[in-house]
Amino acid sequence: MWSNEKDRALRERAAEVIPGGMYGHQSTALLPEDYPQFFTRAEGTRITDADGNEYIDFMCGYGPNLLGYGHPDIARVVAEQQARIDTSTGPSPLIVDLAEALTGMISHADWAMFCKNGADATMMGLMMARAYRGKRKVLLAKNAYHGSMPWNTPRPGGVVAEDRAHFIYFDYNDPQALTDAVKQAGDDLAGIFAAPFRHDTFADQGLPDAEYARTARRLADENDALLIVDDVRAGFRMARDCSWETVGVRPDLSCWGKVLGNGQPISAIVGSNRAREAAQSIFVTGSYWFSAVPMAAAIETLRLIRETDYLEHITMIGDQFRKGLVEQAADFGFALKHTGPSTIPMVLFEEDPDFKLGYGFCRAAMKRGVYMSPYHNMFMNAAMTRTDIADTLEATGAAFEDIKQSRASLKPLAALAALMEA
User: What is the pTM of this model?
Assistant: First the structure.
């Protein structure tokens, strides 16, 4: 029997000692009512909350779980490396091994630097673009997410106009809008940031158009600026290379994170020799950026990416998930918008502007052991099986039945309604 008494007690305690009770994308403030905030166990594709409820997890820690929580091969190398050395006065030799492994897998990469979070990597990309020729203007797609620092956070608190004084925004997948933005930058263009695919929150996803990607490459070359692909979210979920290899375009820099250590805290920026001098000219560091354990995990993760059929498997599982949900929705009289790569799906309801259907559906599925998001893209992982998908569809079938019966009484979350109005 599902319950959340322990979770509620933890929330009350957290509210006293953590601002807002929780923060960032790990907060459940914008998720449906009763969504669990605290978890005590993760294994394979399943997570267990503080009350002992188990869920098939379609969020994968918001991306880091690629191969399965607690993957035995990665757990083994983590334990072995922890017994030797982790964070110390200097990096272990693994930093060289990892840089060699990563540059050997990413076609445009001649060098690599490591950090902890995706926002670290994108900040480094911004600095390198500006250091490259001493220029200031950087182009970003509207509503694209590149981290949570003052220059890119989607929330305005603590941000001043000067933090974004030299950014120009354009429409994703629109070559003309991108061309116009380059003209606006004039002779001060430092770089163009590109998401691997359009993954705005609360919106349909969109794969990159080849003409748009080629235009970005051409404009960067013509203006002697750097093209940066932010592959933090999509890296190794669309290809065993940079995601823009799928449209035949190679950037100067790409930013990586999430899956790189299969849950261990590590991210990276890699680049071509064109950007090497700029990379050498900036000062960036962190006391934990050189820790050996996450690097050991990343080396093993990259080996599994190279040597297993993980990508083909998560594509197959994602296709099954998509097909099953769309068929179920039609059977119950609903229409879904299922967009983006099947390995990183976004599932929204048609004619659901205030997300009432999406929230009711995800809450009903959660109560039956399936953890999904009603507004954020989800993630497939290689531990998922056909049985997991069958169990998921059993739960979602019941969830569709629930919202069909209670449609008239469904209400949007107040916090979400306020955010959308803002």
Answer: 0.96
CA-CA distances (angstroms) from residue 90 to 85, 99, 354? 10, 16, 51
Q: Which of 290, 318, 353 is the last residue of a domain?
A: 290
Residues 314-321: what's their mean pLDDT?
98
The full DSSP string for 147-191 is -SSTTT-SS-TT--GGGGTTEEEE-TT-HHHHHHHHHHHGGGEEE
HSE value, Cβ hemisphere, 13 Å, CA-based, for 51 = 19
Total number of domains constituting the chain: 2
- 222/320 same-domain check: no
pLDDT band at 419 (very low <50, low <70, confident <90, very high): low
Q: Taking residues 312-332, report their average pLDDT.
A: 97
Share of the chain above pLDDT 90, in %: 93
Angle at 280 between CA 279 and CA 283, to 5 degrees: 90
Please indicate, yes or no, whether residues 62 and 103 belong to a single structural domain of this protein: no
Q: What is the pLDDT of residue 192?
A: 98
Which residues of 180-242 form beta strands (DSSP E)? Answer: 189-194, 226-230
C-alpha 234/C-alpha 205 separation (Å) is 12
